Sequence to fold (560 residues):
Amino acid sequence: MSTTDGPQLDSDASQTTGTNSLLGSEDWWAVWIGGGLLAFCLASVLVAGSADAPANPLKSWLAKPGSWSSNPIDSIFVAGESNSIQGVVGVLVVSSVAFGLGSLVMGRGFTSFAIGFCFIFLLATLAYILAGQKVVKSYNLEYALWALAVGLLISNTIGTPSWAKPAVRTEFFIKTGLVLLGAEVLFSRLLTLGVPGIFVAWVVTPIVLVTTFWFGQKILGIDSPSLNMVISADMSVCGVSAAIATAAACKAKKEELSLAIGMSLSFTVVMMVLMPAVINAMGISQVLGGAWMGGTIDATGAVAAAGSMLGEEALQVAATVKMIQNILIGVVAFFVAVFWVVYIERDKDGPKPSVGEIWTRFPKFILGFVAASIVFSCIYASVDNGPAIVDAVIKGSTKTLRGWFFCLAFVSIGLETNFKELAKFFKGGKPLILYVVGQSFNLCLTLFMAWLMFEKVFPQAAASLGK
Amino acid sequence: MNLTSRERGARWQRLSLALAAIVVIWGLVLPRLERMPTVQARIKHLNENGIDPAALFYSDHEGMGRWEASIRETQRQHPEAFWSQLPKRSPTE
Fold:
């Protein structure tokens, strides 16, 4: 059990006590909102576009601020070129109505939620604008970091206004965003790099994850298993997205998620610059180097940026290995949720939990996440023109909404976090040691596996990719 | 929490200072950094290749479809190389 006090990323237990209703729980509301949005976006694509060329009619109604150089207004409005004001307002309307309705049915007022939500949305817009500056963007400083910083800035100076607090719903935003993310977890992509890709991304990653978690618990003696798990998943799978998914699955504290993401982004910036130089110095081929970086650099964006510094082949292999790792987060989130309910949360002296108890404690939004993944994987693989339909749904709408929901969640985390509370999680430097040891093991094992696969067992795969 | 007007003033002062720092960094420092040839070259390279360095998930990269298609095409041309090809040993080995 976690020994450090603090709000958890699962506040549902208290809400559902006694009701256990499909309408009274935040987990289920995340499934209804996320599933409803996915269904609506899919229906819009199917109705509005032709079978040969699917188009998403919602695209102009859902947008986020773009990139800019010297004038931040360019991120939402460039005269005669682009205008994302309509799309940003569209997201505000859709999300405030969806989350507001959920809050209303769960017994909280709609009006108080809507007033606070406008404030949080404004802060999220500011975070997107800060992240959109081209220099900031080019060095992998993701919006999650700025959203967290903006929230922390308010809570640690003037304090979070009491009228905004009803809309500070971190878990609600994260869980709904994860259900939407499920549509992007497409299992057919697992096979893109054949056997070598599966071994580098799907064999090494779970070994590193489990070993790092074990090391943190048994050797370092980290008090909080959830902090240990979030750092392990963030470092071994795919950075921020994996941290969000596992934090929600193991009900980690908000500060634990913030800490894991802060550490991961700091190391990612260093690895993104150093790894291409090290690979060049070692004389490693582009294919092997790309696979090594794809399997080890945490952030998906940084992997492609680092891969491109070696060349086109390294970029393709690195990005594809990371894509296959991205697909793993659905499986990781599911098993972490099961492991937590069955082993971590149970009374050590009591009997094994019954199936009913496991079901009661299981975070239900994971089911929505997995269901979205299965449904969209089936559409992608078995429907005529499936890839184009899924692409139109994701790129035209759900990806934008997912990004906003995560951004709102990180602003909310910042608004609920005090710098002093964050500092105590660093006690003894154990999280840092865990990350460094885990990442070192990851670097060694991934290099070995990539070498074994691309140089020894499947050398012709590397040769054909290198042509 | 009951705060004196002095404490409230200090809090607003801290926020104003932080906001001023943001305005200076994002409004002056970063745009100047962007004009450096090495930074410009980096941004141009990333844009041309469809790379979003701040991507959270693979689907955030504009270029992902192209990279994946290229690898799938290679695999289509050499399926055995990715699924069953072990290095061929000569009879003398």
Observations:
- Residues 20-465 of chain A form one domain.
